[in-house]
Amino acid sequence: MKNAITIDVEDWFQVSLFRKHVRRDEWDKMPSTVMKNTCRILDLFDKKNVKATFFVLGWVAERFPEIVVAIKDCGHEIASHGYGHEIIYELSREAFHDDVQKSLHILQDITGEAVHSYRAPTYSITRSSMWAWETLAQLGIKVDSSVFPVKHDLYGIPDAPRFPFEIRLASGPKLIEFPLSTVVMMGKNVPVAGGGYLRLYPYWFIRNSVRRINAEGKPAIIYLHPWEVDPELPRLKLGAFKTMRHYGNLALTTERLSRLLEEFAFGTIQEVLKTTPVQTDWPRAEEAYSTNGKFQ
After folding, report:
1. Which side of the chain, N or C, has fewer Cβ within a 10 Å radius?
2. Distance CA 146, CA 235 (A)
3. pLDDT for 289
4. Could you please report the per-residue DSSP string of the chain?
5. Is a pLDDT exceeding 60 seen at residue 178?
6. What's the confidence (pLDDT) of residue 284?
């Protein structure tokens, strides 16, 4: 079975964890590592003969268009990560529309091709921001990968479907949601196979989790950021928890990613969806919850 491999192309200082430490107007003054680390990932994918989906932040593409060109030239899928790494549930609908539209224009101007996939910064399509799906569909997005079916302090819809499902929108179009991977343990969804989870969990747990997902007849979806393959990442003075969360096990990421690419088959989101059954009995977005707040 083929699984999806995805990269969220943003710089190390743009993560939501650093919002109180690095102001947005300071981004251009920070030392960038996004080019060299994206190239490291591209080299690894080339060696393993793997194609991936790259969700590129518009801010990054605007300043480093050569990154987008390199990704495209290597045959990978170019997708949108929005423009300014904005948290959706903190935005108005108009501001969200403008942010995504700006990113699409930048990416499409560089590649000459339409962009059909999107991932929200910090996976910020939650119960309070499901309206974003309508906006994405209006902008021509066909596949979203923003929902994490877990409980978390920054994101998550814990009772969302765990595997790709179709959203029938009130405006008419349909959108496919490809949720981030989880396994069920003691009745709870546990996040696996991406970001800090990939870095901090034991490798055997990650490998076994992907196997469990595949045993259910479903694809897993792996996600990483370019900065996570850089053990020499610039350091900010943080508390112990934030330091562990952002910098923990950076020296292990490349090895773990390489092992996953050797042990499992991977492809782009679009490629994986061609052979993946998509749940189609999910109600319209505005009808998604019953009175007790659970998915119907």
Report:
1. C
2. 28
3. 47
4. -EEEEEEEE--GGGSGGGTTTS-GGGGGGSPP-HHHHHHHHHHHHHHHT---EEEE-HHHHHH-HHHHHHHHHTTPEEEE--SS---GGGS-HHHHHHHHHHHHHHHHHHHSS---EE--GGG---GGGTTHHHHHHHTT--EE-----S--SS---TTS-SS-EEEE-TTS-EEEE-PPPEEEETTEEEE-SBHHHHHHS-HHHHHHHHHHHHHTT---EEEE-GGGG-TT-------HHHHHHHHTTGGGHHHHHHHHHHHSEEE-HHHHHTTS--B-----GGG-B-TTSSB-
5. yes
6. 56
Contact 129, 97 (CB under 8 A): no
For 116-164, write each residue's pLDDT tens digit.
Answer: 999 999 999 998 899 999 999 999 999 999 999 988 777 878 889 999 9
Categorize the per-residue pLDDT at 98 as very low, low, confident or very high, splitting at 50, 70 and 90: very high
**What's the gap between Cα 58 and its chain centre?**
14
Neighbours of 237 (CB within 10 A): 7
CATH entry 3.20.20.370 includes domain 2-287: yes
Place 28 in a pLDDT band, splitting at 50, 70 and 90.
Answer: very high
Average pLDDT of 87-111?
98
The structure tokens listed for 116 are: 């059909």
Identity at 260, one-letter amino acid code:
L
8 A C-beta contact, residue 28 and residue 244? no
Q: Which tokens is 105 given?
A: 């224009």
Ramachandran region, residue 174 (left: φ > 0; alpha: ψ -120 to 50; beta: rest): beta
